[in-house]
Specification:
The complex is a heterodimer of chains A (619) and B (268). Chain A is α+β, with helices and mostly antiparallel strands and 619 residues long. Chain A is 28% helix and 22% strand. Chain A starts with 10 loop residues before the first strand and ends with a strand. In chain B, a hairpin with a 2-residue loop joins strand 3 and strand 4. Chain B starts with a strand and ends with a helix. The chains are: A alpha+beta (619), B alpha/beta (268). At the A-B interface, helix 4, strand 8 and helix 15 of A face helix 2 and helix 5 of B.
Chain lengths: 619, 268
């Protein structure tokens, strides 16, 4: 390294710094920027670090652009509509009102999924009772979408396009600055008070040591740090490690949402605004969705939750099998891929809520436990947390009150507790516990909780994902002999491949025939559906903390679950990480099967601040 | 040392790895869902901008302008990324950046905008741009802008520019056979259409970004809408090549193996 190039760490003072730009930060900045501008009755908010200037608000986003990801969403949009009373959703690319909503139960046309006996009995009854044309496509339409799931009065969005729309409005105002391509590496904590953030070091080798052009990450000091970096954001997780969780709270339920945006074939009859929810296939625990946007475009995908106890829990292979289901494929055949991506969903809801505030900081969005796991809604809830925080911040700033835990608690947390958000989050808090005991118990539990508005629930408190994972031999008992599992294990190890494809085929899953348009190899989806941004000069963000723990891990679920095939078997037994394939879904964090220390909640994988990620082809 | 007034012509292009689909609509040809495609600074223009910023650093009191023609909303987003990398003043022109507007029309629009830059000393002017473009790949735009501005010393596919103490410029242009043509010009004004240059992409520097935004935001707010002459070219048809992409990421194959596989693929 050329020592002459080493720069001193820069420092900057602002009034408020935000980490991550998603719906929550969008809601926060939209509300705050209106107050910064002032109105006829309210004076503008003025800076304290730059007297005479407007409030200085900066937001740093890891990805190289705002709205980089692919994610179709159906939402009732109550919070969003409140922020934009005159909202014309046609002004947001790909947005449209919900026109039709259906819940489909998909039967298994191959007999390959792992269905409990009771469900097989139900399937047999369905086939017997509704033989003929109604089950030709191996599905039935559930005649009733429960109120708690229904989004009839809502609209469809592409989150990427929505974020870009919000970001454009914000930056056009000139009142706040949103900086993409700038990961935040750590909170600055002094005596349990968050005093700002540190940006990531640049010009480093992959192991983090300074390299040519090393530039230490800047310290950004702020009176208030707003953390909205999502379910697996490094700042939120570092705060969780430092401050712990409130008594009784935990984040044990997670899911990978793997999605596509597709051009539908011309023969597809689905109209814009159509919403299809699916259950039952490719595995009972995996839910699917298909939303039709204007322009004959659809967002579709599946959610693979932690309570699907497969030790080879791949999302990509299951997404292909779901698309090939006769009921879905009849809409998709002849279409083509426009975009692909995946993300982690924090599915613990309110029970996963961390400390929402502390001295100098506040948490908003999905990482703050705002997702409603009963209604399957998160974007509008995240937006609303940002709005509620902004209202509190405006109140405190005008009253010249400091951002202490006590003041933030009164100004933000109290607002949140008194909102529809909290009322619905409490109702839904235990709605999915039944899935700890199986698919049917889970459905029953959701129904009971939904219909009784949270008064009843079924099932135990969720346990950490690693405590649920059976061995391969246990999972495939009766389907694949142990000797064959061992042979597959050895063969995949020698080839440096994950196990899931070979095991699924051995368990009866048909081979997926690629059409080059919608069905393609995982790497082709990665490359055709977007582009992984992995700029040089940044450290690897996935780190196997204690290699010896990985060497002795029999169940390297991190490899199987990796959404971009960025984690692959390593010769020494320690998985290899390739930053150029990582789409930052974060599934490896919560899938790690080995505790870092005996009894620790954290696994052996550290997911640090990293630049880039998947820039989806279209959002 | 001579301070320069460096004007870089550069705009956004769809991220090069996207699958682009041209469409022919009533307004003429365009890219399907252009406003939804992720955009980046045209890589060729990027090299020009980073070289300009580096040259300006070595020659105190130099100024760098970036003249960008593209949809205002997309430019605004793009600026949040590149403003962190180099110091410049923005001149924004609100227009389509689909690549289907002919180079002459774009050149006229750019030349007019450059002519109107307040404080620009044309005797110190170095007009920078890419020798090609990831979208407008006629490779002639910067030359035409130069001609319209009366700049006759033009260098194409430049990889290196050395500004000497006597004010002269030594320029290395790419020529065939992997060789360079070395030329010396007495000094500014000149046109330099960059190939890749020699500089890496600068890191994101938040303080540079903050400084730039003081001028970028006002520039975006007063960006003039320009409608380059769409009628100067008549497109009969636009289409993408009928060829499927076959992509694999392989890191452990030898060069010979890769070459053999590609040759086999070409042979069919």
């Amino acid at each position: 390294m050329d020592q002459g190039l080493v720069m001193d760490r820069q420092n900057m003072d602002v009034d408020i710094v935000c980490v991550g730009f998603g719906p929550a930060t969008g809601g926060f900045l939209t509300t705050l920027s209106r107050a910064i501008a002032g109105s006829e009755s309210e004076a503008p908010l003025m800076s304290r670090v730059m007297p005479g200037m407007p409030l200085q608000v900066l937001c740093y986003e890891r990805a190289d652009d705002i709205g980089f990801g692919v994610s179709g969403v159906v939402t009732r949009g109550r919070g969003i509509k409140k922020s934009f009373p005159e909202l014309d959703v046609s002004q947001i690319p790909m947005a449209t009102p919900v026109a039709k909503e259906k819940l489909l139960y998909l039967l298994d046309p191959h007999g390959a999924s792992r269905r409990p006996a009771a469900l097989e009995g139900i399937d047999a009854m369905i086939r017997a009772v509704r033989s003929g044309s109604q089950t030709q496509d191996s599905s039935i339409e559930v005649p009733y979408v429960p109120d708690f799931l229904a989004k009839h009065d809502g609209f469809l969005l592409s989150i990427g396009q929505f974020n870009q729309w919000v970001g454009t409005e914000l930056m056009g105002s000139g009142l706040v600055q949103v900086w993409p391509g700038m990961p935040v590496s750590a909170p600055l904590i002094e005596d349990d008070r968050v005093v700002g953030i540190r940006l990531v070091d640049q010009g480093t080798e992959s192991d983090g040591t300074p390299g040519p052009g090393f530039m230490p990450g800047m310290n950004v000091h702020a009176a208030l740090t707003v953390v909205g970096d999502g379910p697996v954001g490094p700042i939120g997780r570092q705060l969780d490690e430092h401050f712990g969780f409130p008594e009784g709270h935990h984040q044990n339920d997670w899911a990978v949402g793997m999605k596509m945006v597709v051009d539908l074939p011309t023969h597809c009859p689905l109209a814009p605004g159509t919403v299809l929810h699916t259950i039952g296939y490719p595995e009972p625990e995996i839910f699917g969705f298909l939303y039709v946007h204007p322009g004959h475009v659809a967002s579709l995908g599946i959610f693979v939750p932690t309570w699907f106890d497969s030790p080879v829990r791949t999302s990509y292979a299951y997404l292909q099998h779901w698309m090939k289901h006769p009921r879905i494929w009849k809409y998709l055949e002849g279409g083509s891929l426009r975009s692909w991506g995946a993300k982690t969903l924090q599915e613990s809801g309110r029970r996963g809520e961390p400390h929402l505030v502390g001295d100098g900081y506040a948490r908003i969005g999905e990482g703050s436990g705002s997702t409603n796991v009963l209604t399957g809604s998160g974007v509008d809830e995240a937006w609303t947390t940002g709005v509620l925080l902004a209202e509190g911040v405006i109140e405190l700033w005008r009253a010249e009150q400091p951002f202490t835990r006590q003041n933030l608690d009164a100004a933000y947390v109290t607002r949140r507790r008194n909102s529809w958000l909290e009322a619905e989050a409490k109702e839904s808090e235990k709605s999915r516990d039944g899935f700890q005991k199986g698919f049917l118990t889970g459905l029953l539990g959701m129904g009971l909780t939904g219909l009784t508005h949270g008064k009843l629930h079924v099932g135990p408190d969720p346990v950490p994902p690693r405590d649920r994972i059976p061995t391969l031999e246990e999972y495939y008992e009766g389907r694949i002999p142990p000797s064959q599992i061992e042979a597959i294990r050895q063969e995949c190890k020698s080839k440096g491949e994950p196990l899931h494809t070979a095991l699924m085929e051995a368990a009866g899953w048909p081979e997926v025939e690629y059409d080059g348009e919608l069905l393609m190899s995982h790497q082709d989806a990665l490359l055709r559906g977007g582009k992984v941004q992995a700029p040089p000069g940044y450290a690897d963000h996935v780190v196997f903390v204690y290699p010896s723990l990985c060497e002795s891990c029999d169940n390297q679920l991190c490899i199987e679950v990796c959404s971009g095939q960025a984690i692959t078997p390593g010769e020494s037994g320690v998985p290899q990480f390739d930053r150029e394939k990582c789409i930052h879904c974060g599934a490896c964090i919560w899938s790690c099967a080995v505790p870092r220390e005996p009894g620790a909640h954290a696994g052996n994988i550290e997911f640090r601040a990293g630049a880039g990620g998947l820039h989806s082809g279209e959002n | 040392m001579t301070p320069f007034h460096i004007v870089v012509c550069g705009s956004l292009v769809p991220d090069p790895l996207q699958t682009l689909e041209p469409t022919l609509g009533p307004e003429g040809p365009g890219l399907k869902n252009e406003m939804m495609l992720p955009s980046v600074l045209d890589p060729w223009a990027g090299h020009a901008l980073y070289e300009a910023a580096s040259l300006a650093t070595k020659h105190p009191e130099s100024r760098v302008w970036l003249v960008s023609l593209g949809p205002k909303a997309r430019l605004q987003q793009l600026m949040m990324s590149i403003a962190q990398k180099a110091k410049f003043e923005l001149v924004a022109i609100d227009s389509s950046a689909s690549g289907f507007i002919d180079a002459q029309s774009v050149a006229r629009t750019l030349a007019t905008a450059i002519d109107e830059i307040d404080g620009l000393d044309k005797n110190r002017l170095l007009l920078f741009g890419g020798c090609a473009s990831a979208s407008r790949d006629a490779g002639v735009t910067v030359q035409m802008v130069g001609e319209l501005l009366g700049l006759t010393d033009q260098f194409l596919a430049v990889d290196e520019l050395e500004a000497r103490d006597d004010g002269s410029l030594r320029v290395l242009e790419r020529i065939e056979g992997g060789k360079y043509l070395a030329s010396t010009v007495r000094g500014a004004p000149a046109v330099v259409a960059w190939a890749t240059g020699k500089l890496p992409e600068p890191p994101n520097n938040p303080q540079v970004g903050m400084q730039n935004m003081r001028t970028i935001l006002p520039a975006l707010q007063k960006a003039k809408a320009a409608i380059p002459n769409r009628n100067s070219i008549h497109y009969q048809e636009v289409a993408i090549p009928q060829q499927k992409r076959e992509t694999r990421v392989v890191k452990d194959m030898s060069v010979d193996e890769i070459a053999r596989e590609i040759a086999d693929w070409i042979r069919g």
